[in-house]
Structure formats: C-alpha cells, structure tokens
Write a structure and sequence with these properties.
The structure holds two protein chains of two kinds. By secondary structure, chain A is an alpha/beta fold. Chain A has 18 helices and eight strands. In chain A, α4 crosses α5 and α8 packs across α13. The model of chain B has no long low-confidence stretch (mean pLDDT 93). In chain B, α9 links the parallel β5 and β6. The longest helix of chain B has 23 residues. Chain B folds into two domains: 144 residues, Rossmann fold; 153 residues, Rossmann fold. By secondary structure, chain B is α/β, with parallel strands linked by helices. The chains are: A alpha/beta, B alpha/beta. Chains A and B meet through α6, β4, α7, α15 and α16 of A and α4, α5 and α12 of B. The complex binds iron/sulfur cluster (2 copies). One iron/sulfur cluster binds next to α3, α4 and α12 of chain B.
Amino acid sequence: MLRRLQYEGAARVVAPALATGLRAQRRLRSWRRPKKEPSEWFGPPLRATYRLKEVLTRHYLSGRYADGAVPVAWVTSGFPIELLRPFGYHVVYPENHAAMCGVQRKGVKLAQVAEVWGLSQDTCGYARCDIGSFLSGNTPAGRLPKPDILLACTNICQTVVHWYRTLAAILKVPVFVVDTPFLSGDPDERTETYVAEQLEECMQLCARIAGKKVDRKALGRVAQRSKEASELWGECLALSQAEPAPWTGFEQFLHLGPIVAMRGLPECNAYYRELRDELRERVKHGIGAIRHERFRLLWDNLPIWYELRSLSTLLAEVGFTIVTTTYSYGWAETAPLFDPRDPIVSAARVYARVFINRSLDFRLEMMKKLVNTYSCDGAILHSNHSCKPYSVGQIDLADRLAKEASIRTLLLDGDHIDMRVHSKEQAEGRLAAFMESFGGL
Amino acid sequence: MLAYLESQKQQGRPIVLAFPILYPREIVTALGACAWEIWSQPLAQPIGSETNRLQAYVCPMVRSAQQVLSSIETIHPRPEAAILPHTCDSMQGLLSIALSTPAWDLPFLPFRYPRGSHGPASTRFLREEVLAFIASLEKALHRTLDPDSLQQALNLQEQKEDRLRTLLESLRYWQGSDIELYAALRSLEYLHPHDAIPLLDGLLSRVDRQKARTGVGIVISGMIPEPVDLFDILEDAGGYVAADDYASIGRRLPSRSTARNADPITSVVQRLQRMPPCPTRCSEVQPRIEYLRNLARASGARGIVFHTVKFCEPELFDVASIRKALGEDGLSVLHLETEFEAHATGQMATRLEAFIEMLGQGKAS
Ligand code: SF4
Ligand code: SF4
C-alpha cells in the first residue's frame, strides 16, 4: 500500500512538482543570464525538448517506486506493449535506458562491468550496457525497478532473446519471447497467425502475474491510442519534408523516447500533439533546424549516441542536415495497421512487419521512398558493430541506393554505444570527404 | 568431397547446399537428394572475383557462406538449391542478401525454427514451417515427396544417428586420435546416409570398452572442429575429447525416443524439438547448463572447452552464463575463439595446454 502511494505520488505529485521547478529555474536563469548569442549553425532549440525532459523524468521517477507497487515488466523496444497497459504494468525499456547511458557517455563504463562478468565485447553494446548497469546498480535513471517478467520480441533482432535469457538467469525471473519470424518475402497469414497466438499466450501470462482479468475493451482503447500516437509521430516526421527541415534526424532520435516507452498512454499522445504543433509553426515561419540548409541526408541504423552533438555540428557547419532516418520512420510506418476492433490480430501485423524484420529489397524500397519524399541528396549508413540485423546487408544497400536513387552514399563505421570501437578521427575524416564530394564547399 | 558429390549427382541425387545449423535433413534425403552442409570454406580454389559484401565484424561462418555463394558458378557439381535456416541475425542477413542477388542463381529456402516461448503456438508453427519447407524443396527439385519415402528416410537418418550417438557416448573408449575421429566425422557434412552408416560402423569397430583412454577428458562445445590441429595440441598436452557438443555434430542429435508416429511429419517435428539445447534455437540457458553438466558427469570429463566462432553472438551470451554456473560447480571452462585459421594459433595452443595441465593437477579455475 505504502509502495503504491509512493509510486502514485512520484508520478502525480513529485514529478510534476519537479517539472514546475525545472521550468521556473529555466525562466529564472534566462532572466538573470545575458541573452545567449543565437547559434551560428543551428536554428532556435525546440521548446518541446524541455517538455520531453519532463515527460521522461516523470516516467523514470515513478519507476523508482514501481516494484512492489504495480507489476513491472522489462521489454524490448519492438514488443507489443499494448498488451500490458490494461493490467497497469510499469514498463522499463532497457534499450532506451542504454541509449540514455550512451548519450551521457556512460555506455563504456557500464559495458565494462558486464565484460568483467563474462560478456564478450563482441556482443551488442545495449545488452552489455544494461547488464552492466544492473550488476553495478549504476544508472543515470537513479534506480530501475526489478521486473516481475521480461518480455522480448524478435522483430528487431534475435540478439534480444539471448540478452533477455541471460538477464532472466541473472535476475531469476521468467521471460516470455514473442517470435515474429523473419519475412523474407511478402507478409503471410500463417506467420501472422502464429504471432497472434503467441500474443494471446503472453497476455494470459501477464494477466496472471498482475492478478487481473483480461479486459479486451480496454485493450481496444489502448490500441486506438497507440495508433494515434504512431500517426502523430508520423506527422511530426513528415514535417521534415519542408525545406528547410524544422528539426534534424538526430533530434528525432531523442524525441523517440515516448513513442518507444510510453505507447498506449495518453501522455504520449499529448506530448506528440505539442511537438507537432511546434514543428508546424516552425515550418510556417520557415525556421530550419540548421541555419543554412544546403544538402539533405538520410541516416540508416541507430545513431552514434555519444557523438550526436559533434556529428550534428560537423554537418551543420557546411549546410548538411539529416532530415530523415530509417529507425525513426520505423515507428510510424506500420501505424495504419492498428485496428482497435481487433487489437491482437492487428498487433501481430503491426509488429511482425517492422522494416528490420523484412528483406533487403523491402528495406531498399523504403529507403528510396524516404529519399524521394524527403528530397535527400545523400545517405549515411551507419555500419554498427553492435547491431548485426541492421548492419548485415548495408554494403549492398549503400551501393544499390546510390545507383537506384542517384544519390551519394557513405558507409560510416561505428558503434551506437561502444566508443572503443569507434574511431572519431577516421569517422570525421570520412564524413568530411563525403561532404566535399557534393561540391561547392 | 567434390568427387563424391559428383558421383551422387551421377546417381541421380541432386545436390542441395545446407548452411548452418538446423533443418530437417531427412526431407532432403526423402526427395532423393544429397545434402552438402557448408560450415566453413570448403573449396580449395580461390574465392570468386566478387567483392566482399560483409563487414569485418560478421562471423567467419557467414563470411565463408557468402564466399561459397559468390563462387557458385564455378562449383561442380552445381547445387540445385540452398537451405538457409534462420540461425542468427547474421545468417538471416545473408539470406536477405542471397534473395536480392540475381547472380547467385539458386532457389534459396529459408527454414525458420520458432524462437518463441515454445508453447502450443510454436509447435503448430514448426509443423507448418516443415510443410512449407517441403513444398519449396519439391518445387526447387521438381520432385514430389511421398510419405513412404519420408518414412524410409527417417529410418535411415535414425539408424545413422543411433550409431553416431553410440560413438559419441563412447569417446572415452575410442582407440584412435581425436584428429582422425573429427576428420571422419566432418565427412558426415556431405555423405548421404547410405554412405554415412558404413563409415560410422567402421568408427564404432574401433571402440574398445575394455580400454579406457588415459589422460584428461574434456567436453568440447562450440560450432565446428576447425582448425583440426587443435586436437593434436590437446592430445600432446595429455587431453582428449570425452564428450562432444559441437553444433555441427553432437548438438544435432535428437534425444532418443521410443515413440512411433503414424504420421512421418509429426516425427520430423518432434525430432527437431528433441535436439539438445542450443542458442541458435533460442533455448533457455538453464537447460543447456544442465545438459553440459550431465555430459561432463557421464563422460568423466574434468573441464569444458568452448571452441566458438569469432563474433558469434548466440554462443557468446551463453558462454558467459554457463561459465558462471559451471564454475560454481567446480567445473573449469576454457573459451577459445576461431576465425577458421588454417592452423591453431600459438595463443590458442598455449591456453589449451595450460588448461589441460591445470585440470591434470586437479585445480579448479
Ligand atoms: S542487436 Fe541491434 S536491434 Fe538488437 S538489441 Fe542490439 S542494437 Fe538493438
Ligand atoms: S557462427 Fe554464430 S553468428 Fe555465425 S552463423 Fe553460426 S550462429 Fe550465426
């Protein structure tokens, strides 16, 4: 009971109070400090970024008190989270958490803890970072609640199964894996029926753990909210078709947080409405994310979290901006398939058809579509040491995209978390040469 | 090997390439074909002129597979189809590359073993996947499968496996060198079961239950026994393989079952489900720990050597947990990684020698 009060209190009282405090502090600072010179390369910062911080702070803050108060699940980013919402689960996304560690450049230190424990440096950096965080109790989130269940879905990769099975052995909690078999051709009913059947099995298990009954009406409402949220996210992304683009692809990576971690909650939709309105306003007034947009690029694969700032600056200084990314687009792409009247079967479709679970030909077509609709002049494909499902095939994709979409492409070596396998000088050198090839610099 | 495969083709058995790891081999046999498994680079001739299409951090097994496919035009006998099971993210990536490469002019057959939580939905899906696999192989070979041929192929496969199982359970009494044993076992990658059975009988005739091997027995686990001179180093150091859990050998032997199914498809499905725990089937870690513990106990092995392939994520996750758990039991574990070097590296040799020496002295790591 006390735990529940703490949990609710953190979400409903402390976090909003903290947010108000932060806002007031920000205002006070802006009065006191002499006005900051506008950046030479970037447009004015998005107001929504502050809201994003508030929304995520609230989520993580309440999480500190979640275990013992409500059922807790740790889930992979592509897991059909809608299933859990009606049971009141608090949901933790280890991938988001690892990304947060990456942005704060804490990824390597935490990964090293997992390596000392026994994980090889050749395993996915997200997994090492999170396992290291759990083993050391060190997290920028303050504290992560212990899960009652681990839930993984293979739509992003098979690595998550190995990662979650390892976690399950460490934490001694059950794990449920929803398998979305790889679609080497068109989606087929047989595969999607299999996925839907597993979702049913999983939902029953989650109901048992939560001690609640399955409420299909509530599930339909959640599916409706998720559909709207993904559509709103799609609208936000589409606004970058404008020239100049009102926000960059790297900013999109940061603003992905709620669509990944808070799908199905009203706060998520409210947040993206606010973001969309601000982006619309920027487009209306011709405000670009960078001041002198000259060339527009597509980014493939996860970002290099710890170099977001430096890479954005390097690009912006010479008028380059990332306007679209395959990863961010992935969260909007299958949204229309959600059907609140048939939440399980439609979720099977939505989650089995994510682009990373599809063939190279499919991915190439998707990238060509993005290049066209966002008027891209080039593409950077981040060859990510950590992430085999995203990276295997990128050599072909870079060649074919260059030929078939008539753009310049660059395969950029790196790692989304592990700074030790990323050579900053080499990457910057390659990027500079790539940009020079566009001429006029 | 190529001459053998050529002779198979002459006998009217088309060649079907099979990439690692798990697929229902009995179906290939039932359709009158011969499976040729590609676990590493099997060709003596240099790789085709096609440029490398995989990053350096992709495992050598997938890189070898890509090289074989890139040279497909020059391979004789020409295979009629290639099976690409969904083993891991990298193998799945290769399937995707294969399907989008018209120059690799072959029908590519995926096989998707269910990776979920192994409830009733998984069994249903596996059955459907087996049926879909049959349909696509029939199409590729222009042949039709009849239930009698499948039953015969199942019988043949089981006879072969019974012999292999007996052999692997008797490694302690094997009267020969490990290098010789593994060279012979690797030919199972391409031998038709008709020819595999006499080979295994020959090997079994060299098992003498009155004469146990001396030295330090180990369990060996990993992907494939390559480089093979590792076994010379093991033997010189005073060790021998007491039990095998290589994915290419012992880990593809279904557990014994006395159940007889009227429906051969059900047998195929159950055989796949009865395979030993393996991360490429997304098995849980605990059953694999138990399995290895039992292998060590039954064979009298004093330690476990994981001989994995560089960048192999499925194994790398498991090894960490297994090492912890078995270490607590006092069972020592050594982890060696191979990149399919022609010969074991000096570092591999030193570590293996030191490990055997330590086990010989009865120390725990
Ligand atoms: S392998 Fe790639 S998709 Fe999978 S968890 Fe790691 S970063 Fe994510
Ligand atoms: S060695 Fe490992 S990573 Fe490579 S194909 Fe086999 S299972 Fe996949």
